Amino acid sequence: MKRVSLFVALVVAIIVLMVVNLLIGSVKIPVADVCRVLMGDDSNEIWTNIIFSSRLPQALTAIVAGAGLAVSGLQMQTVFRNPLAGPSVLGISNGSALGVAFVVLLSGRIGGVALSRLGYLGDAAMSVAAIVGALAVLTLILWISQKVKGNVTLLIIGVMIGYLANAVIGVLKFLSPEEDVKAFVVWGLGSFSRVSGDEMVLFICLMCILLPLACLLVKPMNLMLLGDNYAANLGLNIRRSRMLVIVSSGILVAIVTAYCGPIMFIGLAVPHLARAIFRTSDHRVLMPATALCGAVLALFCNFVARMPGFEGALPVNSVTALVGAPVIASILFRRRQSAE
After folding, report:
1. Helix (H, G, I), strand (E, B) or coil at 39
2. Any idea which of 69-78, 136-145, 312-321 has the lowest mean pLDDT?
3. CA 210 to chain centroid
4. In the predicted model, is pLDDT for residue 313 greater than 60?
5. Contact yes or no for 324/69 (Cβ under 8 A)
6. For residues 267 and 216, what is the distance between their CA atoms, to the nearest angstrom?
7. Residues 243, 249, 254, CA angle at the centre, nearest 5°?
8. Separation between Cα atoms, residue 283 and residue 291, nearest integer Å
């Protein structure tokens, strides 16, 4: 009964934060007018445009992106049995960044026109490049996972792939004009505001397919917690299960990174937050709990990034760390004290 109450509280928190995201920003819109706009009243074109073109897409994007990254982090921490594992641990996020770097940093030098000047066409090219780069690294990781047995070896190789990708990105930055480097750096700061219109619908549809599919891996993930030998004795195919979890996590990271840029911290910290709140290691509870906690944290960070007083919006990556780190640290500290 207590867990049901916690789930209800998380859902209510998502609804409240979504309303707050619609109400508060650089332009203040009264509650009644927000309700009228959502009901279809377009008498005030400016407010209608602000809500439907900016605030609502950002809120919906934050919900599904936060949930996807949190679930991906939970999967990585489970498969590697490492509390410091996150969505970027295998270099998949770095692969996305490398794909975008090739497109953004080389476009001006090779094609004569920087993608940063091409508007929606440039944004679409960056999204495709991010997905291609992430899936290329994911394919390499899956091939390596068939050759090595230990999770630690695979983890180290993934970290090395990330370092290699960052090294190539550094060389590309050095050789590229300042304008292209700035466009790449801005992409790397992460943002929930890049997705709107048909892109937002496609992004949400993809995540609504991928997240339920990730929940199908709950049983093998629970068995993985018991250790490879015990899980194998219970009939679990360790190598295949590990590959499926990595694929699921990698695709979630690839899609979110393609649409929002590399969003840090959420995938690493939210699984710990969910474990601390629900006090369980059962993935039947942790999977939905982690998704909801990720949505709550992403919505809150998006609201803080767009608070009145800031010109434009703060980088999401800065806000996620500044807001989330103290909260997670305090929760883990209290959990440690109660255990003692």
Report:
1. coil
2. 312-321
3. 13
4. yes
5. no
6. 19
7. 120
8. 11
φ, ψ of residue 247 in degrees (nearest 5): -60, -45
Rounded distance between C-alpha atoms, residue 190 and residue 223, angstroms: 35
Residue type, 50: I
d(CA 298, CA 294): 6
- In the prediction, which pLDDT does 338 show? 59
Q: How many other C-beta atoms lie within 10 A of the C-beta of residue 96?
A: 33
Query: From CA 84, how far away is CA 251, in angstroms rounded?
Result: 20
- In this prediction, residue 311 carries a pLDDT of 52
pLDDT of 328 reads 66
Name the pTM for this structure. 0.86
Q: Within a 10 A sphere around the Cβ of 315, how many other Cβ atoms?
A: 16
C-alpha–C-alpha distance, residues 237 and 259, integer Å: 34
How many other CB atoms are found less than 10 A from the CB of residue 282? 13
- Strand, helix or coil at 176? coil
Residues 264-291: pLDDT tens digits?
888 888 888 888 888 888 889 999 999 9
Distance CA 132, CA 137 (A): 9
Cα–Cα distance for residue pair 1/148, rounded to 1 Å:
44
| Count of residues making up the chain | 340
Other CB atoms within 10 A of residue 240 CB:
10
